[in-house]
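note to self: dont lose this again. the chain is below, predicted strucutre after it. 203 aa total, dont forget to put it in the shared folder this time
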Amino acid sequence: MNTQILTIGHSAHGVDGFVALLHRHAVSAVADVRSQPFSRYAPHFNRNALQKTLAASGIGYVFLGKELGARSQDRSCYVNGQVQYERIARTGTFLTGIDRLLAGAEAERVAVMCTEKDPLDCHRTLLVALALADRGAEVSHILADGRLETNDEAMSRLLRRHGLDQPDLFRSSDELLEEALMTQEQRIAYVDQDLAATITDRN
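---
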């Protein structure tokens, strides 16, 4: 049986509702992949507060934002100031994080947590989930209403979002998905404004 891993976005959930979603799906450990593990608008999701809340609910917590976060500290992962997920995915730090997730999922029911409500608007799907799927894991996303969406279903929704869900005479289904992923990444991927300004100044 393949390793199963979930993802979830804390979004605007209250802490009780968030914990209820985790319990509903039998999650025993949360892997936080936020580069900056705090929320100005929802302080109950700040790293220390969340860790305490989860512990009181019998759920483990591990911070993997350094390894699997979307705001890489490696300048080689940026083009014109915008982070490139493909480059992050090749770094040793990221691969170490994926290894830790897969190993942890052998013993725990793990949910990869980030901020965004919709998994398609978050690197937990466009970067982390794709890497996990490439390693043979079965990834599903806990939606805000509690439903589960498989990663394949999420990718089908992404294709529809970008009008690429119909057969194409000249492109394979994999090529259409690659285009959809690249388009979505350009929309949501982190931009380091200081790095972008430095590049602009040079030009």
